Structure formats: C-alpha cells, structure tokens
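From the pipeline queue, job 12 of 40. The input is one protein chain; the requested action is below.

Action: predict structure.
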Amino acid sequence: MLSRAERIKREKVENRKHLLSLPKVFLFLIVSIVIYLSSLFLWVKALEGTTYSELLESVIQMNIIAVGLFIALGCLNWELITVIIRSLLKIVFMVWVVLMVLFFPMSSMGESVWLIGLPFFFVYLEVLLDINDVLNQVKKDFAIPKMKFVNGDMLKNHSIAISIIFLAVLNVVISYFIGDLLEAITVFG
C-alpha cells in the first residue's frame, strides 16, 4: 500500500510525464504535416504542364482540408463523433456524389471542379481514419526488435502523425505513377 504522500508524488511524476509528452506529440505532428505537404509537391511536379494541372489546386485543397479535419477529430478523440462523420461520409460519397456525377452535365472542367474534388476529400479522410484505427488497435506489448522506440505506446501516442506520414508515402507512390496513368487514360479515352 502506498501512503498518501507517495501516491501524490507518483501522480506528480505521471502528470509531468504527460505534460512533457505533449510537445513531442505536437512536434511530431508538425513534422508529419511538412512531410505530407512535400508529398503533394510531387503531385504538382508530376502534373505540371498537363491539362490536369488546373484541377490540381482543388484536389490539393480538398486533401489539406481532409487532413485538417482528421487532425481535429484525432485531437478531440471523440469516438462517437468520428463514427458519425465516417458514416456520413460513406453515405454522401457512395450515394450522392455518384448520383451527381451521373446526372451533372459536365460542360466544362471549371464548373465541376468541386465535384471532382469531393471524392478526394471523402476517400482521403476515410483512409486516414482507417490507418488511425489500425494504429490504435496495436497491442501494448507490440515491439520491433531492431527498433526499440517503435512500440505499442509510441504508435498509439503518435497515431495521428503516423497516419499522415503513411498517407504522404502513398502520395509519393501515386505521384510516381500519376503521369503515366493520366496519359494512358487520355490515350484510351
């Protein structure tokens, strides 16, 4: 049994650890945002000078808004709100956006930029939420033998930033193939 003084001392140590970990989490989040924005720059370089470059600005804006909403949801840590937003996104994307694409007259790219950007927003936010869920489900005793700092607690504490970095890696892979993919679509379309 701990005495009252020992319990208070232990609580102070725990509180101090918690307060000192906040700047680390914030710093890691800032680094992940910089990495993510750098990955979007690769998209700009890949599509520079193509007919798709005018759409790129709205796509990038939608991606940044999705990441911002994800950070807000992750920092609030409200599971119910996250589930409600995820369900709403699935309904809006699966039903309404698909219907709009089918029945919206595409007279020019400028008029339908928002319609093209919406799927990017919905899908990117959904991917971020899925990656975050997987990281939060990692068991506490998880560890990588060669890298002792990567453990279950680290993955859970930095799940938001790691999710953003993972999405940045996906963006880098996509930027490598995006030019060829769009060129193939243009040739066959």
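Job complete. The longest helix spans residues 4-47.
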